[in-house]
Amino acid sequence: MILIMMMINTIMMLILKHPLSCGLILLAQTILTAIGTGMMQLNFWYSYILFLIMIGGMLVLFIYMTSIASNEKFKFNKNLIYIFMFFLIMLLLLLLIDYYYNNLMTNIDMSNYKMKLKNQFSMMKYFNYPNYFIMIMMIIYLFISLIAIVKITKFNYGALRQKF
């Protein structure tokens, strides 16, 4: 079901032309991707980090787009609304079909979940011998990046966009 919604978002992205509407579709796609990856794993840490990285990138894109095209008006296209309504009706029909299919798959999912609980995953494997060097290097890299970004923004003593 999540894959179908992601495909609908991808099709909608091809139709849209305004940066704000494309950003909203990208946000919906990011949320669906985070939910999909979280459901495939026992914990949601990977999907949470993926979501935060994508939102950070989208914030940078939003700042860039507002500095370039700050006065552009956002108007809804009537044909786009009709296409969106068509996709919404198709999604509701797929939800009804998926409801009946989901009842059949519940037993399979519960047995898979019980098998995952037997193999309890721990975060300690990232801090043990073979992997601790990678973790320390990643922490140092993020710290140096933080210092560099603070120095770059402090150089201007204010916002990145200059007013003329």
TrEMBL record:
Transmembrane segments: 43-68, 80-101, 132-153
Keyword Mitochondrion in annotation: yes
Gene Ontology MF annotations: NADH dehydrogenase (ubiquinone) activity
Keywords for this protein: Electron transport, Membrane, Mitochondrion, NAD, Respiratory chain, Translocase, Transmembrane, Transmembrane helix, Transport
Family: Belongs to the complex I subunit 6 family.
Main location: mitochondrion
UniProt-listed Enzyme Commission number(s): 7.1.1.2
Catalytic activity from the UniProt record: a ubiquinone + NADH + 5 H(+)(in) = a ubiquinol + NAD(+) + 4 H(+)(out)
Protein name from the UniProt record: NADH-ubiquinone oxidoreductase chain 6
GO CC annotations, alphabetized: mitochondrial membrane
InterPro entries: ComplexI_Subunit6
Compartments reported by the entry: Mitochondrion membrane
Top enzyme category: translocase
Source species: Longitarsus pratensis
Membrane topology value: Multi-pass membrane protein
Keyword Nuclease applies: no
